Amino acid sequence: MTMDLLRTNYHWRNRYLLMRHGHSQANAQQKIISSPERGLTNYGLSEQGEQQLVDVLAQWRWPEPTRVVHSDFLRTTQTAARVAAAFALNMQKEERVRERHFGELDGQTDSYYPEVWAFDAQSADHTQWHVEPVSRVAARMCAALDALEQCFEGETVLVVSHGDPLQILLTALAGKPLTQHREQPALLPASITLVGG
């Protein structure tokens, strides 16, 4: 990665609220939905996810966002729309913060996740089951943030993405080996992590 963001002394131009989408229909059905073919128009928020967003917005304790950037999957778009509406903001789609593609496991049971993560812990470049390598996810997620850093200054940007990509991004920003992305606590649906500023 060539990202300036990865320097430990990096001075952030903006603040970022990294948000995982609310509980989704894919979560409820315990399915891996990682391809645009399945995820762009299907598997939006579940009733539980909708309620999570009501609760998050009612108890908002983060800086107020000035921009909303989101993965174009349905579950992230719906999550971003709820927050954007609450703060009267427009939304910007960003394909680089999409879900990690899980290759041959797309559409299968999410019980495969631990097996993928076990391979992740051995190599950030593995492509078992044709999954998107952790290293590639980190590169595109960092590139998305870097582009926002180049375009804006003094903003508070809400970035709505997915569990694995956000954990991989946070691992990269912390300067830790990408093989350790599952060693930090899992990001819960509708959770928000503040970075920068």
UniProtKB/TrEMBL annotation:
InterPro entries: His_Pase_superF_clade-1, His_PPase_superfam. CDD domains: HP_PGM_like. PANTHER family: PHOSPHOGLYCERATE MUTASE FAMILY PROTEIN. This is Histidine phosphatase family protein. It comes from Vreelandella lionensis.
